[in-house]
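Next up, a specimen:

>
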Amino acid sequence: MFEETMSNDLYFLRWSINKTYILFGASETIVKFRNAFDFEIDLKCIVDNSKEKQNKYFGSLKVNDPSYLNSIKNECQIIITAPSIKAQIQIKEQLESMGFIEGQNFTTYTKLMMVWKWYTDRSIAVNYTEVMITSKCNLKCQNCGLYIPCYENQEHRTIESINRDLDSYFKVIDYVSEFRLLGGEPLIYPEIVDLITIIGEKYRAKIGEFVIVTNGIAAAKCDLITVMKKFNVVFHISDYSNTLPQIRKSIGKLIIRSEEAGITYKRNSSNKWLDLGSPFNSRKLSKKQLIEKFNRCKMPCRSLYNQKMFYCGPLSSAVMARIYSSVRNDYFDLSEAQYMSKEEKFNSLLNFELGNTQMGYITFCDFCNGFGCDNTFYVEPGVQIEM
């Protein structure tokens, strides 16, 4: 479990923006982390466990083997910039085995970003938030991580309800490193252009990377391409064509269209998915087991629904599908936050982001196999339910 008890004032002094830092984890997270600030920090280099990345450059910074850290102990502070909690936990254990102390010698980029933004310009910043705008999809994946086949009534959310959530969210949040629209399949959402326009005109300055997550099957119409280019929106394409070769052509068309329009895209393909299991079956775990499981998972993304920031997407989707009822422990209530002082909002949200829940876990953990290193169940991605 990451160090969470140090006072914010002491933490800020110990992790001053004037110190020299080494980043552990050569990933796009580094770019998002640095883009969050209006100031430059002194970065010495990057270290990474991947031999393929070592002795190369990530931007202007050289990537070294972690053994390099032994030669600079107490000279630099270490920021873990691996994108997944699973990788962060592995790095934490690796650093501790090398004699480094959490909170003194190393910390995570998410906590540091929130504290630095607060102390430098009194901004409340978070790492990553997603909004499911529709539960309708043009696929029916057997092991969907958001349980879309479990919805009794798949439907598009009204733009009014989404806009209400956005207004509540951005009244509290001054900056989010990555903000995603997803489904279901967001490209079949009938008001997608209007929604992007609303977000772009009202909140684009508060968003680092603005993303649409798509399976790439639906065509991107001209008005969508135009508004995406205007507000610098990125496609994240989840490519399941290894399992479903019939969709390869549609994905290719979307990529060509994006390249012609100058729209940034990322094509994500995987040969396996983590199997989250059935959201209907309790695992009957003890409180101790739930706390341990939650600390091994701690999903880094929050999900916005019904003026609440749910701790993870699977929980939020299960609530949307009306197959699970959450409790106050499981979310940050944005409507309640309007009655807090800004400092109270920051402290409450920082604790929530770090996973300091009242119960020590999220109640839905008992209905999910999780994304932590203890989940060893994998399935083939994109396998369709036979009709």
